[in-house]
Each structure stands twice: as C-alpha cells, then as structure tokens.
Design brief:
Blueprint (H helix, E strand, L loop, with lengths): L7 E4 L4 E7 L5 E7 L9 H5 L18 H27 L4 E5 L2 E4 H13 L7 H21 L8 H12 L4 H10 L4 H26 L3 H12 L4 E11 H21 L4 H8 L10 E6 L5 H7 L11 E3 L2 E12 L8 E11 L4 H11 L3 H9 L6 E7 L5 H8 L6 E3 L7 E12 L2 H30 L2 E3 L1
Antiparallel strand pairs: 1-2, 2-3, 4-5, 4-14, 6-7, 6-9, 8-9, 10-11, 10-13, 12-13
C-alpha cells in the first residue's frame, strides 16, 4: 500500500483522505477519498464506495452473520489485501518508480538497474551490486549539486576529452568503450551521467583544494627522510574518525581529547570507536588491520610510529574532522629502498670503558642536540668529531648499524672494543635525488592529499544531505 507514501494526510475537518499520485510521466494528480468514521464491522467497506453516503457519518446496523455472509465479507477483505499487494509489486517492478530521494534529486529503479549493469561491465563480482549502485548514484547526485554550488561546469569539449582519457586508462578507444557499454545493456545517457559526475567532481576538488594540497620543499624533504630510514614496518591499527559536521570543530576536538585521555586511563578504544567513529570500521571497533607504514600518509605515519603498542595518538586534524589512532601491534617486514642514496650526518665521541649503556646515559645527560654533542666531541680524544652527511656505504659498518636505529638527536653506542666505546648521535638523515625522482614524490604527496580532501568533502556532503528511501 505505497501509492500515497510520503505525501498523504487525513483531513479531520472534512473526514477525507487527501493524497497526490505521481504518474510515470511526472504529473501530480490530487486524489480525495472519503471515509466512514464509524467502522465497527466489515460492511462499511461497501458503504465507503456508495456515492449517496458521500462519507458522512452513517449508522451501521449489525446484521445477522451466517456462514454465507461471513464468507462474502471475508472474500471482500481478502480482495482488498490482494489488490494492495499487487499495487506494491507493481511499484517495485515499475522501472520509473522512485527508489531514493537525495535532497531535490531522485534515483529511480531504472537508474539503479543501469548502474548495476555498468558495474558488471567494469568487472564487479561482488554479492550485492545494487547496494553499491545506490551508494554511487547517491554520491553522484551530491557531486552534481556541489558542482553547481561551486560554479563548476564542463566546457564544450570537456566531456569528449574526459571520455578519451577514461578510455585510455582502460586501454580502449572511446568508441570501443561505448560499444562495450551498449553490449552490456548500459544506455548512453546512463554512462554519460556516470562519467560527467566524475569529471565535475574532479573540477570541484581541484578548485577547492589544489592550492592546499601542493607539497612544500619541507614536506618533500620530510617524506624523503621518512623513506630513507630503512625501517619498513607493518602496523596493526585502530581508528576513531569524528566528523566536524556532527559536533562542530570545537565539539569534535573536545570529544577526541576526552577519548584519548580516557583510553590512557584504561578505557576501551574499541568501545569508543563503536560509539563515536563514523567510518565503516566502527562496527569492528575501528580495526584497520595491518598497514605497511610506508603506505600511510606521512602525517599519519609520523603520528603512529612514535607510539608504543596500546598507545593512542594525539588528535590528528584532517579536512573532514578529527582522527585518533591506536597502535595495537607492530612488526618488521622487508621493505623497498628509498628514492635515492641515503646520507647521514652524526657526531662521534670515543670514551673509555666497556659499558655502552653507561656511556650513552652519560652523554644523554650532557647533550640533547648535535650542537651540544659537537662541543663535547671537540674535547674528546680518538676519532671524536662531527661527520657527514656521508653516504651509508662510506660510514663504518658498526656505526652505520647504530645509525639505522636512530632518529635525529638520538644516541646509541657501538659494541665496546679495546679502545673503549664510540657513542653516536644522529644529526640528520637526507636523501640525494634527481629532479625526476623529486617530481615523482611530489606527485605522490599531492595525489594523497587531494584524495584525502575529496573524501572528506564528500563525507561532509553526505552528512548534510536529506536522503529518503521510498
């Protein structure tokens, strides 16, 4: 019984049921149905259709009920329910029936079926293509709205250029791609809507975030230093994502700080994730599974690599909100090499004795930075002094092994020899690269940031949208 859904109301003043029926052609047809206010038996079903009574209050007399009368009334009621079921089935099977409303846009059954065919043409093999189709269509409607609000539109040849690029990415020609869509039963209009949404969204994201996503020289150097550490680790992480859209900037920050504090006092991070996180991982307690550290965005990697298992990062602000990360476990894995040759600058102080721990503790009390360590080295004997930056291949093997486990201004020591112990402080680690390598890294950082900004903005749009399923 869904023909009048969402646009129906009883008018108590006239004892009438008023509704609007939307036809396949989009016409709105007002319908008024009169009712009998006193229904204490099945017989008023007949009175309802009597134009002489016109819905006015009637006195309903209770008739003697024999088996034949009962069966007649039962058959009438059964017919009503059967007709209602037929109406619902007809609606479900009507390709032009509304499936979902997104703000002021509609998604029909036909739209969904076309997107399902498109997904299968692209090789989708999941168990529920309709769910993915509805989600994509919802996002597409919001992308069109965002383009209009931001004044983004395709140029006259924008679609054709985008079609060529899209086809080339799939090693096909534009005509060949369109032929594949036709063979899969995808209409030209459905494919055009799909591609246009993507092209407009790219324009929206670039107009809003391109300047902010460009990496600085410091960003590139930090990324190089991170890659040059030689430590390729895989991290088992949990996350809590708190959107600004739900509580506002100050509210999200306040909640994130409280969660971090409570987890530090023994509360369950997974429990908070289930309650407050707004990503698909919330149901599993925020579990992200194992993630290679070198695949994480530099901002995230830098935050979690400083943690010990069980610890929670400080709140990390991203365009869409606040992220908290918990390091559950960590393991070392064989990793890829850095972009170029790794150079290390360090201070070496030779001291007498055979206890590396005592030697490092003594220097740690006297020097917190390489500047202070360098002044101490000037008065020490042996081969003490400041070295580099030198390629790792030019650094003595024992010292290079110590440096591999250090960050800037951290102290380690070599194994003791007959001459004593060499205490080492890492000053800096850099990477030599050529312009092509720098450009590659710059594009990687830029792409990561643009993807993060785009996803954050889309989540904001979804949070603000009015979505009604029919």
């Amino acid at each position: 019984m869904t023909m009048f859904r969402r646009q129906q109301a009883w008018n108590t003043g006239t004892s009438a049921f008023e509704a609007v029926f939307r036809s396949r052609a989009g016409l709105q047809i007002p319908i008024v149905c009169r009712r009998v206010p006193n229904l204490d038996s099945l017989s008023p079903l007949r009175d309802w259709a009597d134009p002489q009574k016109n819905g006015q209050p009637t006195s309903v007399r209770r008739r003697k009920t024999g088996f034949v009368g009962f069966m007649k009334r039962f058959a009438g009621l059964l017919a009503v329910f059967l007709l209602a079921g037929i109406a619902d089935d007809a609606r479900a099977q009507n390709p032009y029936a509304v499936k979902r409303i997104v703000d002021t846009s509609i998604i029909t059954n036909y739209d969904v079926s076309q997107r399902v065919r498109l997904l299968r043409a692209f090789g989708f093999r999941g168990t529920d293509p309709e769910e993915l189709a509805i989600r994509q269509l919802t996002e597409d409607r919001l992308k069109f709205e965002a383009a209009e609000r931001n004044g983004v539109a395709l140029s006259e040849d924008g679609y054709d250029i985008g079609l060529q690029e899209f086809a080339q990415q799939r090693s096909a020609s534009a005509n060949g791609l369109l032929a594949t869509m036709r063979n899969a039963g995808v209409s030209e209009e459905a494919f055009r809507q799909f591609l246009t949404a993507g092209l407009l969204w790219r324009g929206v994201v670039q107009s809003r975030f391109r300047a902010r996503a460009q990496p600085s020289e410091t960003d590139i150097q930090n990324a190089l230093n991170f890659g040059a550490s030689g430590v390729q680790e895989s991290l088992l992480l949990r996350e809590i994502a708190i959107p600004f859209a739900e509580r506002g900037n100050d509210g999200a920050r306040s909640l994130a700080e409280r969660i971090a504090r409570d987890v530090g006092n023994g509360s369950s991070f997974a429990g908070f994730a289930r309650e407050f996180s707004r990503t698909p991982t919330a149901a599993s307690g925020g579990s992200l599974g194992w993630r290679p550290a070198n695949r994480l965005p530099p901002l995230i990697a830098g935050a979690v690599l400083a943690l010990s298992p069980g610890e929670v990062s400080a709140p990390i602000e991203v365009p869409a909100g606040i992220i908290l990360l918990q390091l559950v476990d960590i393991r070392e894995e064989e990793g890829a090499g850095a972009f170029g040759d790794v150079l290390a600058g360090y201070v070496r102080i030779d001291v007498a004795g055979t206890d590396p721990a005592a030697a490092t503790a003594a220097l740690r009390n006297d020097a917190e930075t390489c500047i202070e360590a360098d002044s101490i080295a000037a008065d020490a004997g042996g081969q003490s002094g400041r070295y580099g930056p030198d390629p790792l291949s030019d650094i003595p093997v024992d010292i290079a092994m110590v440096l591999a486990g250090l960050d800037a201004n951290e102290i380690g020591a070599t194994q003791p020899t007959e001459n004593g112990v060499s205490v080492i402080m890492l000053c800096n680690r850099t990477v030599t690269t050529d312009p092509e390598q720098i450009a590659t890294l710059q594009n990687q950082i830029f792409s990561q940031r643009m993807a993060a900004y785009a996803n954050g903005y889309l989540q904001e749009l979804l949070a603000d949208a009015v979505i009604v399923d029919k």
